[in-house]
Amino acid sequence: MTKNFFIIIAMSVTLMTSGQNKMKQADELINKTDPGWAVVEGWIKNAKNKVEILPTEPSKAKEALYHTQVTTQSAMGAIVFMTGGLLIDDGWIRILGSGNAKFNRTLPDWNKGKSFKEFGETPAFLLIADDAIGGFYLMNGGALGTDVGMIYYFSPDSLEFEPLEINYPEFLQFCFNNDLEKFYEGSRWKGWRAEVSKLKGDEVFNFYPFLWSKEGSDIDKNARKIIPIAEQYSLNLDLRKQMGFDR
What we know:
Elements: H1 2-16, H2 26-29, H3 37-45, E1 51-54, H4 58-68, H5 75-82, E2 85-88, E3 93-96, H6 107-111, E4 125-131, E5 136-140, E6 150-154, E7 161-167, H7 168-177, H8 180-183, H9 192-196, E8 203-208, E9 223-228, H10 229-242
Antiparallel strand pairs: 1-2, 2-3, 3-4, 4-5, 5-6, 6-7, 8-9
Helix pairs in contact: 4-5
């Protein structure tokens, strides 16, 4: 199953990029014979980094799966259907699922109005996860290049969409096992873990001076405050335009 599991991501992208084709019902997307959760759960049990699985409600899980239009045989479908989301490293990274009181966002609802207008439309990308400092992980649906299905990081310290050259299942393993201290080197302040562990799933830390500025390069000296993540996402996009990245 593991070999085929990585191929399933292509099937997921095909489902998500089916334009205005008729949407499959949730029951059609639930794979009971070869569920992807068995693989993902095994990865979590053997993860080097701390992973918290947030519970979900069955009705919300089915609704989120229907709106996402991916099979539960895929890693993404498994997480959407089986979890309210995943919190990595005490909530430093939040992987979107079907929502939870602690993480009150679903993958499809969070993307609506950003990567597509209405459920069933072709998404230009999918916001799949984010972190406590206002960084966003996206799966390319065509808007970021020809490498459809690959993951990018919308970095708060450069405002660039940085290709990670991994797909969704590989992204999960990156979160579970990668050296996050090294990946986020220079982006974690003294005492960050205690503060981040209290952060809500729809909040992020906003920094001033901005992390991408020369003045904001030392995160321990920056002022920080908690703001809604939707506000931070819009701010990042606006700053990109002001800086001439998007014309």
